Amino acid sequence: MKESEKTKKQVPLRLSPSLYAELMRWAEDDFRSLNGQIEYLLTEAVRRRKSKNRGDRDEDTPI
Fold first, then answer.
1. What is the count of structural domains for the chain?
2. Residue 43 contacts by C-beta under 8 Å, 6 or more apart in sequence?
3. Structural domain includes residue 25
4. Furthest-apart CA pair in the chain: how many Å?
5. For residue 1, is it within any domain?
6. Backbone dihedral region of 53: left (phi > 0), alpha (psi from -120 to 50 degrees) or beta?
């Protein structure tokens, strides 16, 4: 893995209060921080999109 891939990028994010509250509850249920939950959800969305575009339905394949 390249050195530039090891460092995480910071992204400012604005959320509605209701979405923030829902994400916080979900994160707590999954024992994650809010940041960790958002990163997990985005990673899953990208993985599923890649899988869909390949026509491959392997849900266990990491990004």
1. 1
2. 63
3. yes
4. 38
5. no
6. alpha
For residue 36, is it within any domain? yes
Token pair for 20: 């923030």
Paired tokens of 29? 């249920």
How many C-beta atoms surround the C-beta of residue 37 within 10 A?
A: 19
**Residue 33 in tokens:** 């921080």
Q: Specify the length of the chain in residues.
A: 63
Task: Supply the pLDDT for residue 54.
Answer: 84
Quote the pLDDT of residue 2. 73
pLDDT mean by block of 10 residues, the chain; 63 residues: 79 97 98 97 95 71 59
What is the pLDDT at residue 21? 98
- pLDDT at position 40: 97
Q: Is residue 34 part of a domain?
A: yes
Quick one: tokens of 17?
Answer: 């209060």
